[in-house]
Protein: Xaa-Pro aminopeptidase
Amino acid sequence: MKYHQIDSNLFIKNRKNFMGQMKPNSIAVFNSNDIYPISADSTMPFEQHRDIFYLSGVDQEESILLLFPDAPKEKHREILFLKETNEHIAIWEGEKLTKERAFDVSGIKTVYWLQDLEKIFFEVMTQCETVYVNTNEHYRSNVETETREDRFTKWWKAKYPAHAVAKSNPILQRLRAIKDPIEIELMQTACDITEKGFRRLLNFVKPGVWEYNIEAELLHEFINNRSKGFAYTPIIASGNNANVLHYIENNQPCKAGDLILMDVAAEYANYSSDLSRTIPVSGKYSKRQRDVYDAVLRVKNEATKMLIPGTIWADYHVEVGKIMTSELLGLGLIDKADVQKEDPEWPAYKKYFMHGTSHHIGLDTHDYGILTEPMQANMVFTVEPGIYIPDEGFGIRIEDDVVIQEKGEPFNLMANIPIEAEEIEELMNK
Structure:
């Protein structure tokens, strides 16, 4: 891995918290992701399943974590199964975890090779009553591919049909939503790398550069700072492209007088950051662009203040909608009649701001968290309002990542990234 090794105490604590919520006499199993094929002998780069990473720190394919807090044998209360490494694998694929290194990374003492899985699994299944299945229940999930986790669940259910089944996901949704100080530090690193990429762009962007040139500059900076690259597919949308919310082609020239909406950020150690900034190609906003920019920034600043313990996500978005409505009235994009006759299910402001303002962020860019439960300290959220005006040929989104505090306003992990229009113009014209 490119990143510095993470303190194993994080994973020890995460497992302790998870096991503390398991039913008596139960086991929980977590699988690595597959390496997904492309064609011929080509594969996509490996991305570890975030749940097994969260609980073990193991960042390697063909790995299985088994938790059995009530195991009769103490050594079977936490077990890692790994692909056995050897000299041939080391030469052709590079270093894989040895049993000693796996302990160093995870804090798990009992490590078996995968070839011992069926024998050990039979033993623990004769001793437990319930098996926790790790399903994907994220509110945005839409998975058509059968995963390694799915195949494992099919296998054990066919072999041991009399066991009760429970779900890991509700436990993980709550645990992963509240970040440990070590996690916040890793996310801060991801944000700091993103800052370096963004500052690099302010010296680079000018009329005639292409969207993909900007993407290349960012990738250079991210990888040079120990990131694998982008935390998600980058959006670099000049001119009217900004009005396509998930524009990812990044294949158009940036023209004088246009704006570029960039939703781009680095990952670090599998943790995401998520940044949006909108900058002028020519180094200066027009009066109309500046008026809209400042309106979006005001909405972001007011929305951020509402991210405090006890806030309900749905109520928060209603309040942000009221602030946005006021700004759109001031910009002349809607009028009072539009507001009076609006559909409550699709308020007038949605014509120009049609997406949500905030989502959990962490190991996943759209991270775990149960949206119907009140916000808590040490949850990390994005704040990302936008105004999109196809008739005027531009759209503006501004986004930071913030940590909810016990008291007061959230801590902004992106506080050092230029955001005020004057500072952006000044840096672009140095």
